Amino acid sequence: MNKLQNRRVLLGVTGGIAAYKAAELLRLCQSQGAEVRVVMTHGATEFVAPLTFQALSGSPVHTQLLDAEEEAAMGHINLARWADVIIVAPASASFISRAARGEASDLLSAIILATEKKVLIAPAMNRAMYEDKVTQKNLANLTERGMVMLGPDEGLQACGETGFGRMLEPGALLQDVVSVFQTGVLAGLNVLLNAGPTREAIDPVRYISNHSSGKMGFAMAQACAEAGAAVTLVAGPVQLVTPSGVERMDVTSAAEMSEAVMAKIEQVDIFIATAAVADYTPEHKAVEKIKKNDQKMQLNLVKTVDIVSTVSSTYPELFCVGFAAETNDVEMYGKAKLKNKSLDMLAANLVGVAEGGFNSDENALKIFWSGGEHQFEMTPKHSLAQQFVELMAEKYNEKHTT
Ligand code: PMT
């Protein structure tokens, strides 16, 4: 259930009798938690009215490449960036030909050319058209460019002929969409993460905290689970839905977070510290609400336990990933934290700015490890987490094969 939670699916519909089945595919993707947007070619609108897809998706259907309103709101580049995955179902011979030639003459072809995300193509056409050498060459061209062909199926066709050319059923296509995210790169591993802020109580009604929403950590937890890991997430006080298949432990303070992490750590292969743990906590928590009797008041703070450093020094075999939230000199501080906290990887990000970092749906990360680094540009946190997890799995395997 909810295998597409927080995922954005762009559904391309082209002209063919199977266009009506795309409506069912849309519903199936939604039933797994996906947000779906629809792009239709002119041919598709001859088979099914855009209003059907608009009503089902709850969003306007995109049909025009050059439309002043759409360009301002969601043009082809924005749609290409918005999607986590693109599926064209049904994909007609004509669309496949345009995509193979790298045309950008209609909205859907332009998106296919502009995207860097996974593209799934579900061909649907008359069997002779499908078997034609030109179509086969076009399909081979798309496969070579990294697109994934789904089907077609064999059977009786709408034209009365029998052979290959039927679109795969929506249920089968849904599985293919889901499998884009289920990479299996962490299969068999136990991953523990912490996420969100901590709250350090001053008295029963006040606390010290920070702006972390938990979004980055929850996205990492989801990506690890999708990659096949058994995932435990120690969450600070945040209002987020637990990703599917993830075991969650809720805590409030840095001390509680530390205790929850240490209680689980012996069973894990990878620890990912995304939490913005308070560095200091009040030395004493007042039992009753502090009254404002004086002009000034002084609060004595003491250092909290550094959770990630404790883990990395106590369990050097464990693969340990830290994050660094910086307002300046991100690279310098990031590299220093990689070394000082004895981490296998460190993800540094800029915080305190309008875009990215705390509480934003997007983020950019600069990843450091011993002898290497990689920059992930500003992208939705769920997509970013998926890419980071792929890289992390690579580095984990390197550590365990050397
Ligand atoms: O939650 P979001 O709104 O989505 O925002 C995401 C984020 C900005 C919080 C996240 O991307 C991030 O940067 N997390 C780390 C925040 C942080 O505390 O950074 P730091 O540079 O202060 O700490 C470095 C590392 O030490 C972190 O892995 C932190 O978890 C760890 N630490 C810090 C203090 C402490 N007492 N114990 C720790 O384990």
Layout of secondary structure:
Blueprint: E1 8-13, H1 19-31, E2 35-40, H2 42-47, H3 50-57, H4 68-74, H5 76-82, E3 85-91, H6 93-100, H7 107-114, E4 118-123, H8 127-131, H9 133-144, E5 148-149, E6 153-156, E7 162-166, H10 170-181, E8 190-195, E9 200-203, E10 206-208, H11 215-226, E11 230-235, E12 246-250, H12 254-264, E13 270-273, E14 280-282, E15 301-303, H13 307-314, E16 319-326, H14 330-340, E17 345-350, E18 362-369, E19 372-380, H15 381-401
Parallel strand pairs: 1-2, 1-3, 3-4, 4-5, 8-11, 8-13, 11-12, 13-16, 16-17
Antiparallel strand pairs: 6-7, 9-10, 14-15, 17-18, 18-19
The third-level CATH topology of the largest domain is Rossmann fold
Order of strands across the main sheet: 12-11-8-13-16-17-18-19
Number of helical stretches of at least 4 residues: 15
Distance between the termini: 38 Å
Q: Bin the strand percentage.
A: 25-35%
CATH superfamily of the largest domain: CoaB-like
Structural class: alpha/beta
Number of strands: 19
* Ligands (ions, cofactors included): ligand PMT
Could you report the average pLDDT, rounded to the nearest whole number?
A: 95
CATH-derived architecture of the largest domain? 3-Layer(aba) Sandwich
Domain module count: 2
What would CATH call the class of the largest domain? Alpha Beta
DSSP helix fraction = 25-40%
Over all CA atoms, what is the radius of gyration? 25 Å
Low-pLDDT runs of 5+ residues are: none
The largest sheet, given as strand count, sense and whether it forms a barrel, is:
8 strands, mixed
